[in-house]
Write a structure and sequence with these properties.
Strands 2-1-3-4-5 form a 5-stranded parallel sheet, with helices on both faces. The chain has a 5-stranded mixed β-barrel with strand order 14-15-16-18-17. The model has no long low-confidence stretch (mean pLDDT about 95). The longest helix has 24 residues. Helix 12 packs parallel to helix 13. It has 4 domains: about 110 residues, Methylthiotransferase, N-terminal domain (Rossmann fold, 3-Layer(aba) Sandwich); about 110 residues, Transcription Regulator spoIIAA (2-Layer Sandwich); about 120 residues, Transcription Regulator spoIIAA (2-Layer Sandwich), CATH 3.30.750; about 60 residues, OB fold (Dihydrolipoamide Acetyltransferase, E2P) (Beta Barrel). The two termini are about 40 Å apart. The protein is of the alpha/beta class and about 425 residues long. It binds iron/sulfur cluster.
Length: about 425
C-alpha cells in the first residue's frame, strides 16, 4: 500500500508522523511523497489557532482533490471536532490523539496482524516533511491549565514515554544515519513526573547522552519553569545544542497571571541569566501572544519593553485566537483584530531587531552546520542550506551536494534571516 503523511503544527506532530511512517514501513508499506496515487493519506491535524484548524481542513481537501483513495485524520483538531472532520470529503476514519499511536493497527488491521516489531533503521519522510533531523517523541499531554491553550484539552494529561523506548527510537535514527535528533513533547520539561521513581527531564537527558552516540541533541520547546541549575549544567556536553526555545507568551505580569502561566517577568529574567551563564552564546527563542483578552495598552507596552530586554535570538508572534473549551474564550474585554494585528507587527519588529543583532555576532566566526535541505545545483556549484547548532539558518556553496554532512562554516555575512559563509572544514 502507498501511504502519504501530512501534518500541520508543532514538532510533536512531525515526530508522530515520522513514528507512524516507520510503523507502516516496518509492515511492508511504501511511504510516498505526495497524496497523488496514495492508497492512504494520514493527516496529523492541529488546533492551536484558527489558522491551524483551517490549514488542517485544507490538507484533507487537498488530499481528496489529489485522488487519495482513503483519508484518515488524527491530531488535535480531529480530536476536538471529530464530527466536522468526518464530514470532510474522502475522510474514512478519525482517530483521536488517545489512539493515535495505534493508528496503523486501527486503520489497516489485517496488514498489521503479523507486524514485524523488529525496529528498522529510520528513513526521512519523502516530500515536504523530509528532514535530516529526526523528531523523537518523548512526552505527550500536559497537566497545566494555561487559559488560552486548547492543546491540553486535545492531548489530555501529561504522559512520559519510557526512557528505554525513547532511546530505542534514537538508536533506530542512528542506524539510519541521523546526526541530530529533536526531542519533542507538549510539556517536555514535565517528563518523568507521571512516573514513580522521581526521574526528571535532567535524568532523561543524562541517560540519552550516556547510552547513545547521536552527535546532536536538541530540545523542541521547554516551558520556562521547573528547570534548575543541574539541568543547564548538562550543556557542558557539546552534543546538546546551545539553543533553547522558552515560550514566554507575554512580558506583562498581569497578562501572564491571567494566562495562568507559572512564570513572571522576574522569574523569567532569573531563568535567562541562569541559562546564559551556563551556556555561553546560547540562542534563546520564544513565543509571544499579543491581544490576549484584556491586554491593555500599558500591559502591551510592558510586554514590549520586556521582550526588548530579553534580546531573544528569534521567535514566533501569534495573535490571540479564541478557542472553544478554553477559559480565556469566556474572558471579558477581548481585543479587536486591528489592535492585535498592529501589536503583532510591533513585537515582531522587536524580535527581528534582536535576532539581527544575535546573527551579526557570528560574522567572522565558525559554526557547525548540518546540511538539511537538498542542495540546488547551478554553474556556481551547489547552494546548501542547513542549520547551525545555535539554530540559525546557514547557506554556503560547495562542489557537491552535502546533504546530512556536518561541516564547519566560517560566516561572512547575513542575507535576510540566514547566515552566509564558506565551508572551512569538511565533515
Ligand atoms: S504548558 Fe500551557 S501552553 Fe503548554 S501545553 Fe500545557 S497548558 Fe498548553
Amino acid at each position: 500500500m502507498k501511504v502519504f503523511f501530512d501534518t500541520v503544527g508543532c514538532r510533536l506532530n512531525q515526530a508522530e508522523i515520522e513514528h507512524m511512517a516507520a510503523q507502516f514501513r516496518a509492515a511492508g508499506h511504501q511511504v510516498i511523497e505526495t497524496a497523488e496515487n496514495a492508497d492512504l493519506v494520514v493527516v496529523n491535524t492541529c488546533a492551536v489557532t484558527a489558522a491551524a484548524t483551517s490549514d488542517s481542513r485544507q490538507k484533507a481537501r487537498q488530499a481528496h482533490q489529489a485522488g487519495a483513495q482513503r483519508i484518515v485524520l488524527t491530531g488535535c483538531w480531529a480530536t476536538l471536532e471529530p464530527d466536522k472532520a468526518r464530514d470532510l470529503p474522502g475522510v474514512s476514519d478519525v482517530i483521536s490523539n488517545l489512539e493515535k499511536m495505534n493508528l496503523p493497527l486501527k486503520v489497516v488491521e489485517s496488514e498489521f496482524l503479523d507486524f514485524d516489531t523488529e525496529p528498522i533503521a529510520r528513513q526521512p519522510l519523502p516530500g515536504v516533511h523530509s528532514h535530516t533531523r529526526a523528531f523523537i517523541k518523548a512526552q505527550d499531554g500536559c497537566d497545566n491549565f494555561c487559559t488560552f491553550c486548547v492543546t491540553r484539552v486535545a492531548r489530555g494529561k501529561g504522559q512520559s514515554i519510557p526512557k528505554e523506548e525513547i532511546l530505542e527510537d534514537i538508536l533506530r535514527a542512528e542506524r539510519g544515519g541521523v546526526r541530530e535528533i529533536v526531542l519533542s513533547g507538549v510539556h517536555l520539561g514535565s517528563w518523568g513526573r507521571d512516573g514513580d521513581n522521581d526521574e526528571t527531564i535532567t535524568d532523561l537527558l543524562s541517560y540519552l547522552l550516556n547510552h547513545s552516540h547521536i552527535e546532536r541533541i536538541r530540545l523542541s520547546s521547554i516551558e520556562p519553569w521547573d528547570l534548575d541549575e543541574r539541568f543547564f549544567e548538562l550543556w557542558k556536553d557539546p552534543r546538546l545544542c546551545p539553543h533553547l526555545h522558552l515560550p514566554l507568551q507575554s512580558g506583562s505580569a498581569g497578562v501572564l497571571k491571567r494566562m495562568a502561566r507559572h512564570t513572571s517577568p522576574a522569574a523569567f529574567t532569573d531563568l535567562i541569566s541562569m541559562v546564559r551563564s551556563n551556556i555561553p552564546g546560547v540562542s534563546i527563542t520564544t513565543d509571544i501572544i499579543v491581544g490576549f483578552p484584556g491586554e491593555s495598552e500599558a500591559e502591551f507596552d510592558e510586554s514590549l519593553t520586556f521582550v526588548n530586554q530579553m534580546q531573544f535570538s528569534g521567535g514566533h508572534v501569534f495573535r490571540y485566537s479564541m478557542r472553544d473549551g478554553t477559559a480565556a474564550a469566556k474572558f471579558p474585554n477581548q481585543v479587536d483584530g486591528k489592535t492585535s494585528k498592529m501589536r503583532a507587527k510591533i513585537i515582531n519588529a522587536a524580535i527581528k531587531a534582536s535576532e539581527e543583532k544575535y546573527l551579526s555576532s557570528f560574522i567572522g566566526r565558525e559554526v557547525d552546520v548540518l546540511w538539511e535541505a537538498s542542495g540546488v545545483q547551478s554553474d556556481k556549484g551547489w547552494t546548501l542550506h542547513g542549520l547551525a547548532d545555535y539554530y540559525m539558518k546557514v547557506e554556503a556553496l560547495a562542489d557537491s551536494n552535502r546533504w546530512n554532512k556536518l561541516d564547519k562554516v566560517r560566516i561572512e555575512t547575513i542575507k535576510n534571516d540566514s547566515l552566509i559563509g564558506k565551508i572551512s572544514k569538511f565533515d
